[in-house]
Amino acid sequence: MSAGHPTLEQVAARAKVSRGTVSRVVNGSAAVSAQAREAVLRAIDELGYVPNHAARTLAARRTGVVALVLSEERGRPFEQPYFGEILRGISSATGAAEMKLMLTFTHSPADRARLADDLRTQRVDGVMVISLLRQDPLPGLLASGGIPTILGGRPFDPATVQGRYVDADNKGGARQATEYLIEQDRQRITTIAGPPDTAVGIDRLTGYRQALSGGRERVAYGDFSETSGAAAMQELLEREPLLDAVFAASDNMAAGALRVLERQGRRVPDDVAVIGFEDSAIAPRTEPALTTVHQPTERMGQRMVEMLLTQIRDTSPTGRPVICDTSLVIRASA
């Protein structure tokens, strides 16, 4: 393993194919059987292999620069561990591929239109966009400009980027968390949902509803911040004083809920069970330690880079989304 990074030879050995076959898959050649391609892609995923594009940059007239755009409301990203973790994955993968990473933020539709023009002018090789809102025009602007684009998170219209996005199994994770609370014989299960103008907020609320199977839902909304989680918890307690469980759509909001429950004299998990989502660094440090849905956030960032580098080489019009598995991490709060 060179400098800690998987090599083309190691991918070939894992997939049980020749080095040439791996090279053809990496370079987007059609001269590979479906079975061999699947084996190589699985090995790439398992090993975390990222192709080295430095030697090809000049010949392909590329800049060797990719952009990461955080398309979000002002100030909120810095409250959320998710962004630091996915950025760590993206940074490690671009570094391994010897690509430069340009980080930029947008805060309004006008910002996004200007940025799309700027990115075309600056001739970046590709763009990754995270934290999309419902009416965000940026993916469509980038796609219409012919800029290779990968989204972090399911877009409202996957056709905008021909299915090229990376996300966690948000519905499945939320469903699993809520089903666990049902199995613990919790009778009044509430949820602190994410913003309804985000796909992740909608998907995690959908998973909660699926688990309830038509039973009574009790929902308050937050914006993934700890402050909003505290406010939503207070609202739920006022509406449902006898609630005995909370599924929060982020660890931050769950931490805010724990604060309010402690202030109200509710014991966790004796009186109220609490589950978060993400398995961020704050989850084991809350009091009590937070049961949460694990998502491989750093690996998701790496997969975004892998997909983008493949798209930069590949001229095919469509891609296949990557949905990363989630799992429940049981700690003291539930």
Characterize the structure shown.
The protein has 334 residues and is of the alpha/beta class. The chain has 12 helices and 12 strands. A 6-stranded parallel sheet has the order 2-1-3-4-5-11, sandwiched between helices. Strands 7-6-8-9-10-12 form a 6-stranded mixed sheet, sandwiched between helices. β6 (189-193), α9 (199-212) and β7 form a beta-alpha-beta unit. α1 packs across α2, α8 (170-183) packs parallel to α9 (199-212) and α10 (226-239) crosses α11 (251-263). The longest helix is centred in the last third of the chain and has 17 residues, at 297-313. The model is unreliable at 54-59 (pLDDT under 50).
Write the layout of secondary structure elements.
Elements: H1 8-15, H2 19-26, H3 34-47, H4 54-57, E1 65-71, H5 81-96, E2 100-106, H6 109-122, E3 126-130, H7 138-144, E4 149-152, E5 165-168, H8 170-183, E6 189-193, H9 199-212, E7 219-221, H10 226-239, E8 245-248, H11 251-263, E9 273-278, E10 291-294, H12 297-313, E11 322-324, E12 327-329
Parallel strand pairs: 1-2, 1-3, 3-4, 4-5, 5-11, 6-7, 6-8, 8-9, 9-10
Antiparallel strand pairs: 10-12
